[in-house]
Every structure is written in C-alpha cells, then in structure tokens.
Please model this.
Amino acid sequence: MKTLSLFALIITLTFTSCSSVKVVSDYDSKTDFSKYKTFAFYKPGIDKAKISDLDKKRIMREIETNLTTKGITLSKEPDMLVSIFTKEKERIDVYNNNYGYWGYGYGPWYGGYGGTSVSTATEGTLYIDFIDTKKNELFWQGIGVGDLVMSSVEKKEARIKEIVTKILAQFPPGSDAK
Model:
C-alpha cells in the first residue's frame, strides 16, 4: 500500500512541476528605471505576435494592470513603449515509471510495477520588451515560459495573468521577490 501512495505522490509532483512558469529578465544596467512613468503599447510589434487577437488583448490588459500597480500609467506621450513577442512549441515528456524490488530467481523488477508513459503539452514563450521612446532602444526584456492551457477561457485568462504577473514581478530590476 505504501508503494502505491509513493507512486501517486511521485506522479502528482511530476505533473504539477510541469505546470510552473519559468521567468527570466535582462536589462541595460546603465538605465535609470525611475525615469519611466508612462507607457504605450507598440502596435507594430504587437501585430507581429503570432497569437489570436483575443490573447493579445488579454496580455495587454494584464501588462497594463501590472504597470499601473507599479505607478506607471498609459499615455499618448509615453516614456517607454511596450511590445510583445510569442513563440510556441510542442513539448514531449517521456516518463520511465519502473520501480520494484529484487526477487530471488526472478528478473530485476519482479513484483514491481513499470512502464513508460509519454505526454505532450504545448509550451509557450512570452517576451515582453520595454523600449525607451527617446533613444528608440530596448532597455528591459522579460521572458516567461510555461505550458499553455486551452481547456476553457477562464483557465486561459488565469494562465496569461500568471505568466505576465511573474514576468513583470522582475520589473524594475531588483524588485522581484525571491
């Protein structure tokens, strides 16, 4: 019975660990981030993102919410432009679930359970770029990678919120909670 409980725990941890969002950011270390008080969306960049217009709206709404919370407001004459870029790939995970114990005169997995399982998931990458409007230069980029949830609108919106929030938690540099 203990081996079945252990097996269930391992499977649960494996599948829940796959649902996490991995986030990194990069920035120009010579940038004075305190001077950025206003933003606007960079439409030509956003139009190039290969996702649906509905998902673009969801992402932009979450970016606006996060930046507004940080005291940066949407403006027609912004200090910075915000652009997004997306990538998508199919990820294949192969799990070798062999475990068991040795038995006298039998094979090495006698009495154990085993097998190999394969699962696929669509993994998406979201890039959020901040561009200085005066210099026309990229000064900060956040990248989030995670499985995409497509089962319902509510789950998709929650996933987009999670990804955007985790990316923007690293803006400005030094503000992320570790």
